[in-house]
């Protein structure tokens, strides 16, 4: 096949390919005060299988037809007696539903300054008069194909947005409800506050509370590498694994070892998670915890000045099979508080591009008075890190703050006294659920 034959074959195949885009049924409005020009343009396009036309004999008629006909493309003559094509263009672009409708301006003059004004008014393209049939067909086809593709892209983005929103709601439902948080915390004489903000619609952070026995519970915080869909799907996997092995909830080191071995087999190369698990035992005045590459705990110990970084870190989960994790513990006397966080908090750059770091967060926690609530601590820590409520995040961010207020323990003791005064109930104090010092006072 020689070159001219090849070109002819390609030209014959092109309409069949375009037919898949369904551009031949597109609504085309031809606005021209010359009836002969309207028939000529329509005749050229009909020979190429375009079938759907409307006509307007002037500028005002063109605006009316646009509202009634909702064209997919407008062929607009610039020189019309009642309302010029330039103003028609401007008025159409001022209406949101016509913001992306292709407008092909027909003009008998070709001046660069005039072309600049024409495009500034909103024209998509122009056709020089007298009209060249092949140029007309090519430009109409091009702009209609682009419109179909833009519509498909818009539909795809809308569908994707809806699916991401559904995934975001599902991921949010993995987090402990406010009621569950407060129920577990108050049963142990504690207060709890939390903040979880993904950097996009869905993220790779996950945290939760695990009831263990009366008066103690576990808190975990996971942060998968990256963010977005892949990281979010991994949080669902991890959530299922954690709740599948309830017998390990009281032993942080064994729980982490199990999760690591399971994730090594499940995750693709390059995927991993940092993980921190803390068992809070007010009756023993202590925290027991194990870490898999997570940021350190920040612990403020009762009325002792300052706060400390309980830093201990093993390998992240999902990297090496058979990894072991050391069990650590620290004190948790009355009026203590503990802060757990993902690295999105300490690595957030402030207005000067500086990061607060773990030590800076520790100072921010130490500056909070004993009576400040967990939510107030979180607000102050975020403020110290330069994170505002409306700031866009570069990484997912999760913060959990738990404190042990003397007032809450004293209230529990008062409850014991009230129970003792009821004639139908035996006088008892649940010594296991209260700190030893307060239990003795009961």
Question: What is this structure's SSE topology?
Answer:
Blueprint (H helix, E strand, L loop, with lengths): L2 H17 L7 E5 L3 H12 L5 E5 L2 H11 L3 E5 L7 H9 L9 E5 L4 H10 L3 E4 L4 H42 L3 H10 L3 E7 L7 E9 L2 E9 L4 H16 L7 H15 L6 E9 L4 E7 L4 E4 L7 E3 L17 E4 L5 E5 L1 H4 L10 H10 L7 H11 L12 E7 L2 H16 L14 H6 L1
Parallel strand pairs: 1-2, 1-3, 3-4, 4-5
Antiparallel strand pairs: 6-15, 7-8, 8-9, 9-10, 10-13, 11-12, 11-14, 14-15
Helix pairs in contact: 3-4, 11-12
Which structural class do the helices and strands define? alpha/beta
Shape: elongated
Extended strand count: 15
Low-confidence stretches: 1-20, 408-442
Main sheet attributes: strand count, strand direction, barrel closure: 5 strands, parallel
Question: TL;DR?
Answer:
By secondary structure, the protein is α/β, with parallel strands linked by helices. It has helices at residues 3-19, 35-46, 59-69, 85-93, 112-121, 133-174, 178-187, 229-244, 252-266, 343-346, 357-366, 374-384, 406-421, 436-441; strands at residues 27-31, 52-56, 73-77, 103-107, 125-128, 191-197, 205-213, 216-224, 273-281, 286-292, 297-300, 308-310, 328-331, 337-341, 397-403.
Protein architecture, described:
With 442 residues, this protein is of the alpha/beta class. The protein is 43% helix and 20% strand. The strands form three sheets. The chain has a five-stranded parallel beta sheet with strand order 2-1-3-4-5, sandwiched between helices. A five-stranded antiparallel beta sheet has the order 6-15-14-11-12, sandwiched between helices. Helix 3 runs parallel beside helix 4. The N terminus and C terminus are likely disordered.
């Amino acid at each position: 096949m020689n070159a001219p034959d090849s070109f002819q074959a390609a030209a014959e195949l092109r309409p069949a390919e375009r037919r898949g885009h369904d551009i031949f049924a597109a609504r085309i409005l031809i606005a021209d005060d010359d009836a002969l020009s309207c028939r000529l343009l329509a005749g050229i396009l009909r020979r190429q299988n375009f079938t759907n036309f409307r006509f307007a004999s002037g500028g005002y008629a063109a605006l009316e037809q646009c509202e009634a006909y909702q064209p997919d493309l407008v062929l607009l003559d610039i020189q019309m007696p009642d309302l010029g094509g330039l103003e028609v263009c401007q008025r159409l672009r001022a209406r949101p539903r016509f913001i992306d409708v292709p407008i092909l301006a027909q003009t008998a003059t070709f001046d660069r300054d005039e072309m600049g004004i024409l495009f500034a008014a909103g024209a998509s393209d122009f056709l020089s008069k007298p009209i060249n049939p092949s140029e007309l067909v090519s430009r109409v086809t091009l702009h209609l194909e682009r419109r179909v593709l833009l519509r498909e892209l818009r539909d795809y983005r809308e569908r994707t947005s809806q699916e991401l929103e559904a995934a975001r709601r599902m991921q949010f439902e993995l987090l402990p409800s406010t009621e569950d948080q407060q129920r577990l915390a108050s049963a142990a004489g504690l207060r709890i506050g939390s903040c979880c903000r993904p950097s996009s619609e869905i993220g790779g952070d996950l945290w939760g509370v695990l009831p263990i026995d009366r008066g103690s519970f576990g808190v975990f915080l996971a942060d998968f590498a990256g963010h977005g869909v892949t990281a979010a799907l991994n949080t669902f996997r991890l959530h299922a694994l954690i709740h599948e092995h309830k017998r390990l909830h009281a032993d942080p080191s064994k729980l982490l070892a199990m999760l690591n071995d399971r994730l090594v087999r499940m995750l693709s190369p390059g995927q991993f998670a940092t993980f921190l698990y803390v068992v809070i035992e007010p009756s023993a005045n202590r925290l027991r915890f194990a870490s898999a590459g997570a940021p350190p705990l920040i612990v403020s110990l009762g009325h002792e000045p300052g706060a400390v970084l309980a830093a201990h870190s093993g390998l992240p989960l999902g990297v090496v099979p058979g990894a072991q994790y050391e069990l650590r513990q620290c004190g948790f006397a009355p009026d203590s508080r503990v802060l757990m966080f993902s690295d999105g908090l300490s690595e957030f750059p402030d207005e000067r591009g500086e990061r607060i770091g773990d030590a800076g967060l520790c100072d921010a926690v130490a500056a909070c008075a004993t009576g400040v609530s967990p939510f107030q601590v979180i607000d102050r820590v975020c403020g110290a890190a330069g994170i505002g409520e409306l700031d866009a995040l570069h990484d997912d961010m999760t913060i959990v703050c738990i404190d042990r207020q003397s007032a809450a323990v004293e209230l529990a003791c008062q409850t014991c006294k009230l129970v003792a005064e009821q004639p139908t109930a035996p006088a008892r104090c649940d010594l296991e659920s209260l700190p030893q010092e307060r239990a003795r006072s009961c």
